[in-house]
Inverse folding.
């Protein structure tokens, strides 16, 4: 039995995180001191659940709201409405003091490992800081724990004496992973952790994340735009378009039988060695993805959907319930 199958079989639907009707909007302003003229609806009424030990993939095109979703969950962005429940506790409007305690169990791996590291601090000090601040170890014992962290992510002990600019992109991302796991959190949000890396390094990072999950029982929210990566990493996949979840299903089921035309589009956009397969462009109507500041009425995908009918531009479809949920008036068979 594969690790993915074992995770699914041992789950008793034990919730770790529940997001209910989450909305995160950004004001649109013409000038610095002018009043908002509208809002960018980065996350617009999203609900989902993460279960202990699983990896939920969140996939979609750039600008669909994936990263904002992750940052809102960890409260790096303040949602406009909705609720975030972590282990049954509402953290949506939690005070900074209480949130700092909860964040020891909620960590994030950022897209740009160089930007997330202080260029003036040695790696050993960057890794020791959260351990000392949260009183997991004494400062005199921090060096030993840092050495163990470096070993866990496949880096030599000497790496601790170096500065971020002295490391490669892959090494910096390993440091980002080491910092995220330092406090042994229950949930790690991986915000496009592969996009800044070479293809050869991406496979190494995915293997490392899976090994750490198996060893330390982490739960991941894996945010990406790569269908290959999300297939390898995820137990379930949520497909996001213009701030909304349009399909949610177990990984193998979604790849075998996608029900939403947008999911089909993403799958057909994956490069194939078979030249007889038709281009993904044949399934896209003219025009780019609409602005999240002025999303289309009704189904947000109807302006690009080859199967759209009259009511698609008028009535917004609700996300159905069940193991394979879809938000479409005419889901694919």
């Amino acid at each position: 039995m594969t690790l993915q199958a074992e995770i699914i079989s041992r789950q008793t639907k034990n919730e770790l995180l529940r997001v209910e009707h989450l909305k995160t909007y950004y004001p649109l302003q013409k000038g610095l001191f002018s009043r908002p003229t509208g809002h960018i609806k980065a996350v617009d009424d999203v609900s989902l659940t993460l279960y202990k030990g699983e990896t939920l993939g969140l996939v979609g095109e750039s600008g669909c709201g994936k990263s904002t979703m992750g940052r809102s969950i960890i409260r790096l962005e303040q949602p406009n409405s909705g609720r975030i429940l972590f282990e049954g506790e509402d953290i949506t409007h939690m005070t900074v003091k209480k949130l700092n305690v909860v964040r020891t169990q909620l960590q994030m791996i950022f897209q740009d490992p160089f930007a997330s590291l202080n260029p003036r601090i040695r790696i050993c000090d960057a890794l020791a800081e959260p351990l000392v601040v949260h009183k997991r170890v004494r400062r005199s014992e921090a060096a030993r724990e840092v050495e163990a962290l470096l070993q866990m992510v496949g880096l030599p002990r000497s790496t601790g004496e170096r500065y971020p600019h002295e490391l490669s992109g892959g090494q910096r991302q390993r440091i980002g992973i080491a910092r995220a796991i330092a406090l042994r959190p229950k949930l790690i949000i991986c915000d496009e952790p592969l996009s800044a890396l070479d293809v050869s390094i991406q496979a190494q990072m995915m293997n490392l994340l899976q090994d750490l999950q198996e060893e330390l029982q982490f739960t991941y929210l894996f945010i990406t735009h790569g269908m290959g990566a999300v297939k390898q990493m995820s137990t379930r996949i949520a497909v996001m378009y213009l701030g909304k979840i349009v399909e949610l299903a177990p990984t193998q089921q979604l790849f075998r039988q996608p029900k939403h035309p947008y999911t089909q589009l993403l799958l057909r956009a994956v490069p194939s060695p078979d030249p007889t397969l038709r281009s993904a462009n044949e399934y896209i109507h003219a025009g780019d993805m609409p602005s999240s500041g002025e999303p289309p009425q009704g189904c947000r995908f109807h302006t690009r959907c080859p199967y759209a009918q009259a009511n698609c531009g008028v009535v917004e479809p609700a996300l159905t319930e069940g193991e394979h949920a879809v938000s479409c008036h005419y889901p694919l068979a």
Q: What stands out?
A: The chain has a mean pLDDT of 89.
